[in-house]
Amino acid sequence: MADEQKTEDAKRISISKIYVKDFSFESPKAPDVFRSTEWQPQTDLNLRSSHTAVEGEDGLHEVVLTITVDAKDGDTTLFLVEIQQAGLFLVDGYEEEEFSAIVGSFCPNILFPYAREAVASVVQKGGFPEFVLQPINFDSLYMQSRQQLAEKEAEGSEKH
User: Fold this and answer.
1) How distant, in Å, are the alpha carbons of 26, 28, 31, 32, 53 from that of 70?
2) Rounded-to-integer distance, Cα 127 and Cα 129, Å
3) What is the number of domains present in the chain?
């Protein structure tokens, strides 16, 4: 019982820093895109996250959430935004599966509101109407990626 309590006490997660690692906005057809009064833009959203251990710092990990938004009207690109919203997280005392869920779901969930605000702001500053990224269920995305990985591994083992 005392060992279980000691293990629980050793688990910790904290945010050390949140920052923008890379950010770009393009509107290649400006100012011509503003001549149209009836836009029916189609947007493609691409999300991905990654993490790396910070060398020389025990338990410190950089998690990077990359969001790309490509808005088009037909074949014309209205705008293209890409942000790498990053954070330094101290994650210590967790088993591999728990750790994987923390950096694959919990940390991107923390970073998303910062990225959403930055994207909305730059799109508006680019002369476009308000653009709001809808909430993302990172837990569900993480579970889907784990399931896809398990299926690929199962397919690979069947071939041998």
Assistant:
1) 10, 12, 17, 17, 30
2) 7
3) 1
Cβ atoms < 10 Å from Cβ of 104: 21
What residues make up the domain containing 107? 10-159
Model pLDDT for residues 8-65, shown as the tens digit of each residue: 568 999 999 999 999 999 999 999 988 877 778 899 999 999 999 999 988 999 999 9
Query: 56 CB contacts (<8 Å, ≥6 apart)?
Result: none
Q: Model confidence over 60-79: pLDDT tens digits? A: 999 999 999 999 998 889 99
Minimal CA–CA distance to 126: which of 88, 86, 75, 69?
69
Find tokens 């050390």 and name the residue. Answer: 16
* 27 C-beta neighbours (distance < 10 Å), count: 19
Task: Write out the two tokens for 118.
Answer: 């930055």
- Residue 151 inside a domain? The answer is yes
Prediction pTM value = 0.86
Q: Are 22 and 84 in contact (CB under 8 A)?
A: yes
Q: The domain that contains 149 carries what CATH number?
A: 3.10.420.10
Least Cα distance to 63 among 124, 13, 28 occurs for 13
3-class SS of residue 153: helix
Q: How far is CA 86 from the centre of its chain?
A: 9
